[in-house]
Amino acid sequence: MSTFDDPFDPSRRLSHAGCSCGQHKSQAEHDSALASDEGRLSRVVESAAMRALFPNDLTRRNFLRAVGSSAATAAIASVLPLGMAADALASTGPLEKTNLKIGFIPITCATPIIMAHPMGFYAKQNLNVEVVKTAGWAVIRDKTLNEEYDAAHMLSPMPLAITIGAGSNPIPYTMPAVENVNGQAITLAMKHKDKRDPKQWKGFRLAIPFDYSMHNYLLRYYLAEAGLDPDTDVQIRAVPPPDMVANLRADNIDGFLAPDPVNQRAVYDGVGFIHILSKEIWDRHPCCAFAASQKFVTEMPNTYAALLRAIIESTAYASKAENRKEIAEAIAPTNYLNQPVTVVEQVLTGTFADGLGNVRQVPDRIDFDPFPWESFAVWILTQMKRWGQIKGEVDYTSLARQVFLATDAARLMKEAGLEAPETTEKSFSVMGKPFDPADPEGYLASFPIKRVS
Amino acid sequence: MINSLPLRAGILSVVLFGLFLLAWHLAVSGTGPTVEMDPAYAALMGQAAVQGKSAMPGPMDVAATLWGHLSDPFYVRGTNDMGLGIQLGHSILRVALGYFLAVAVAIPVGFLIGMSPLMSRALDPFIQVMKPISPLAWMPLALYTIKDSGLSAIFVIFICSLWPMLINTAFGVASVRKEWLNVARTLEVGAFRRAFLVILPAAAPTILTGMRISIGIAWLVIVAAEMLVGGTGIGYFVWNEWNNLSITNVITAIVAIGVVGMILDQILARIARLVSFPE
Q1: What is the rounded CA–CA span in Å between residue A381 and residue A389?
Q2: Would you say the ipTM is above 0.90?
Q3: Is A142's CB within 8 Å of B79's CB?
């Protein structure tokens, strides 16, 4: 492109309502403003910066389409050229839709989605987001499939399950960002204070929040490692989180692997104690996720990009330990989690009462990391298959790539000035056993307790 | 000397209520065994665990909460936090919409069934199968087909209030006294005039009884439906406070639900008295 051409125009049009940058009433006014010497000079600088940043014309055009030219203009004009990426995020391109509804379940896993509302991360992207509290994961699923919600807080296995049609009709779903890592725990009733070895848990009635949840897979994994068959030696029931504490008090269940603040609430009310944190099973495991239908992603790319930017920025803010107290106060009120502030604070800061008389300090009890590693998806799929939720051949890699939008997240994380990983797969170990994402079937075959032969 | 029955009944009601409150107060007061705790640890725990205080609130706690809600019933502090008055308003609106839709369907169809023995026999199996279905069982189906949780809740109200009205209307219409119909026939009254001027007034008390049963059921069901789909309404309020294990607010909501249900029932009872006639 020529130095004097408009470098911010992804597709120059002749007749236009307003101008290409959105700052002038018409394209003529826009051009005349740029025709002045000053405008021309800044155009040269902008153009140079733009070309330095995006040497390839096609990449530049794609970038402008996603971010919006007005955002890019404003960014380059204000701080040249280093702050460009950060500022492009501060404003938005032409949004297809600004009034959005996002459903959430009142648990601390949803922290980035919730706090982005009171703390203004959505507003910063010019989005008017209503965060709607929802009664359970099945309702979240139905309301998102209905398109009542534009996007939602889901458990990270749910978009995979929805896409392959396990427990619902198959609808292509995407998971562009993980919300939290860690942040769950196994809580047992006070009467089991002395049964700290899972081998003693035969006959226990244990609760999980949903069948397609990390909680289910982690609990089953933990039990199976102790030699218990989760389908025959114990009873595992899906119980909505708010009912868990009441059921534990009423002695209907012996314990649960649940999201916080449920665990801390059980301790707070003197009903149970925290047996182990989920990070002791798999450190930095994913849990909840920000999910949207593929339709939303493809039909409203700019809105989607803006929303994801808001979520990623919010997640980055939540990942800093010094912000946690402020966040706890922002999300504890009735409008959001509806919990005592001290309960939420104990979860987020990691300085908590364990129910047995000790104050524990685990700063990474819950952490926030948006990157949706594709290998997480592969692991989840192995466990779905292990427990018979899906049968037959599974195309692990392509499903993982289709649902976990790791490349989108990486792109936006880099734009937000965050460190994004170069690859989309990483290996990790669960209870000391390494997982190789390249060989899911071999991993699956290595377990003695499973529902597949 | 107190002779009037209503007065005596009133006094007895007040006494019973007082006894109930006293028993409630005594049952929840007093503290359980307390455990020695490190102050740093105690600061992180709730009152129930630290002081052994009963998790069940006393009547005074509930009264204070109720007063708090009554003095500011219409606040809006965000999508998920609105006053008790607004929540009740949402529920009443949903009930009204579903209920009047049901009235619009049940009364004409009931007339048809009541006036035609053929239709009565033909539709009977369907009604018998549909009637005992719990309205909430329709919820997943409604959510899937209507694709809107608000409309689904209204549909559930519609379906649950339909059957009592339909059956009562059909019964009322079918049991209009033969003499009156014969008189109408002798006077060569047309079918429409007969339906509106003879059958409708004669069947009105039975129809109103069906409507009164329906409004009661509708009000029962809306709370459960809103607990399922959430968003707004008194059912959502109960669920949200249950989430916070706030028994005080749950009891407050129970009181509010009871009072509104009673008012709805009384309105229908008044209307029923207007259309009743001595035989």
Answers
A1: 9
A2: no
A3: no
